[in-house]
Amino acid sequence: MSRSLPDDVALLFEQRIDKLPPDVKLALYTLSCFGASIDVDVIKELEADLGVRLIDPLALAEEEGFVNNLNAKFLFCHDRIQEAAYGLIAEEERCLHHMKYGLSLAKLSLNAEDNNRMLFIAVGQINLGGPSAVSNDDERLKIVKYNLAAGKIAVGMSEFHSAFTFFDNSISFLKKTHWRDHYDLSLELYELAAECALITGDVLSLTVLTEQVMKNACSFEDTLNISVKSYCVN
User: Fold this and answer.
1) What pTM does this model have?
2) Fewest Cβ atoms nearer than 10 Å: which of 27, 35, 47, 72?
3) Who's near 76: CB < 8 A, 6+ residues apart?
């Protein structure tokens, strides 16, 4: 899937996809939101939870030469096919698709056998959706906690760059009044993000995080952890 294709061939893919039956198009759109490939079991979980047909339509898409089903994964036959399918989703709707799939998988990850893997996939989709795709404050708080959980798992795996990304995304989903409404959660997120920033040598992020805690902390004691981390780079 590394060879480039001319733009007119890419356009041909779009035209071919657009002529497919609606359920096959929807399945390809769904698959395209996950990039070049995704595990078959993830698609099966989405099919069951969302109540939409995905597996059988993807089998038809395979017959048409758009995707392959290899080693328990659905994968596009070429990256330009994935780009074409994704490009046919209205731009303003893409974030909603990512958010829908992410929230569905995050809920399922609580009972999944390989729940860490499922949670990482789910949070990845949620973060692609972004804060603008959140429908209400309860959903927003769930998303913050999903990212927090994923970040803690990544820390336990010594994946500190990934962990920082999860914590940073978690912070981005917080409301503007988060220091007032969710003080303990906010403090925990900023301290964890600062720890990862320190470990990965991201001095700028560490400085910004420290400044926010110093500005919003309710007590001197609440500034100690992050102050020590900031002192380590000075």
Assistant:
1) 0.91
2) 72
3) 1, 31, 32, 36, 37, 66, 67, 68, 82, 85
